[in-house]
UniProtKB/TrEMBL annotation:
Organism, scientific name: Pseudodesulfovibrio mercurii
Pfam families (alphabetical): DAHP_synth_1 (PF00793)
Catalytic activity line of the entry: D-arabinose 5-phosphate + phosphoenolpyruvate + H2O = 3-deoxy-alpha-D-manno-2-octulosonate-8-phosphate + phosphate
Organism taxonomic ancestry: Bacteria, Pseudomonadati, Thermodesulfobacteriota, Desulfovibrionia, Desulfovibrionales
Protein name (database record): 2-dehydro-3-deoxyphosphooctonate aldolase
GO cellular component, one term: cytoplasm
Length: 267
């Protein structure tokens, strides 16, 4: 893709992949299917997966292979499929080495106000995708955008991923989409983390994956620019976020539905 950010401003796009990098085989299997769908549907798809999930519910939860091994797998995914890749960073010092591989640096929702992390990500020149904290109003993300722009980077995405609603539950206010688009940046709907039940299983988060198509479709109807979804060949066996992940064999059907809706919304 010649210019990922410009493509995101001119048409719909997708971020998809397993929550965490579980293995080289799972990564390549998933990415191969997604690359085929990108070609078949003419839809930009960015492969997403994290080398470290530092905010897992339990100390014993699977976090990923770590930065060195994880970046090697992501580099192989790019070489094998041609898909751009996005992955999380948690510390400012991770920004530069991760940017050598990743096309997009993602800031987790819990860290969206961490100034040093935002500035380090921005200074790489890569696209920076910031997930809106579950604790923030959408209009508060204006300050996040201003921090990134102050570091000289206007290649910014913002992602809606639900807001805390009582205990172990999230709710999505679709008004957040146009409210954040008003900052002049593409806005993404995280349709899978938004159906998460944070900590809902005691030692792990639960989820209601049956509502992923509902939220994704509602967001497209509300004018969202892109959709983020965690997908896995076998979500019930996934090592991270399985309850809110979409089965890989259901992705094509959902993408066809979203493309039809995008066509109507965008006229």
């Amino acid at each position: 893709m010649a210019d990922l950010y410009q493509a995101s401003r001119s048409g719909p796009f997708i971020l998809a992949g397993p929550c965490a990098i579980e293995s080289r085989e799972t990564a390549l299997q998933t990415a191969d299917v997604l690359a085929g769908l990108a070609s078949k549907l003419g839809l930009p798809i960015v492969y997403k997966s994290s080398f470290d999930k530092a905010n897992r519910t339990s100390l014993t939860s699977f976090r990923g292979p770590g930065m060195e091994e994880g970046l090697a797998i992501l580099a192989e995914v790019k070489a094998a499929t041609g898909l751009p890749v996005v992955t999380d960073i948690h510390h400012p010092e991770q920004a530069a080495p991760v940017a050598e591989v990743a096309d997009v640096l993602q800031i987790p929702a819990f860290l969206c106000r961490q100034t040093d992390l935002l500035m380090a990500a921005a200074r790489t020149g890569r696209v920076v995708n910031v997930k809106k904290g579950q604790f923030l109003a959408p209009w508060d993300m204006k300050n996040v955008v201003e921090k990134l722009r102050a570091a000289g980077n206007d290649r910014i995405w913002l992602t809606e991923r639900g807001s805390t609603y009582g205990y172990n539950n999230l709710v999505v206010d679709m008004r957040s989409i146009p409210q954040m688009q008003a900052f002049g940046v593409p806005v993404i709907m995280d349709a899978t983390h938004s159906v998460q039940l944070p900590g809902g299983l005691g030692g792990a988060s639960g989820g209601q994956r049956e509502y992923v198509p509902v939220l994704a479709s509602a967001a497209v109807a509300a004018g969202v620019d892109g959709v983020f979804m965690e997908v896995h060949p076998d979500p019930d066996r996934a090592l991270c976020d399985g309850p809110n992940s979409l089965p890989l064999n259901q992705v094509e059907g959902l993408l066809n539905r979203l493309l039809a809706l995008w066509e109507v919304v965008r006229g």
